[in-house]
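Record minuted for everyone:
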Amino acid sequence: MVYISVLTRAIFFYILIGFVYRLMGKREIGELSIMDLIVSFIVSELAAMSIDNYQSNILISVLPILAISLIEIMTSRLILRNTKIRDIFEGNPSVIINRGKINFKEMIKQRYNIGDLLTELRNKGIKSIEEVSYAVLETNGNLSVFTKKGMNFGSFPLPIILDGKIQEQTLKEIDKTTLWIDEFLKGENLTKEDVFYAFYHNNKMFIIKNEDVK
């Protein structure tokens, strides 16, 4: 009877957790943020505790799992629409190599050492730092690398406006000013508050308006 109870609970939580993660829209482990990993650990621990304590009421684990899942879904929706909340929960990507130069200050801030950088570059088939134009440490811990070979500045998207907030660092990178943005938006009959996301790509500005994501 004990074995049947443990087996039944294991199968139940396998189905439940699979459903929960489908509901939250999670994909590969490498794509999970810090908050996603925290949820994963809590859910797995709750499930393991319920399977081990097979004589306890299964709702003691099911209710917290469902509550945490609901909080995660609500938080994800808030993060999608609010950059301040997104920064708090997920942080920002960090530029580790900028125009071929290592940003040691950012590496220290992120506790990312030169060994980590070289390992990631080797994993991507890059032999030397000199081959790299840009390297960005993403919020999920992955390193995005853009090599100098065949690459011109502006050949990958750079965020200009996020939820109506101008990205000053990007402006410095592309040698533009807020006046340039204001004039561009004026020509489109828009204000920065109307913009959900605007990015600079191949010397062009692309805009996603707030009304397009509602």
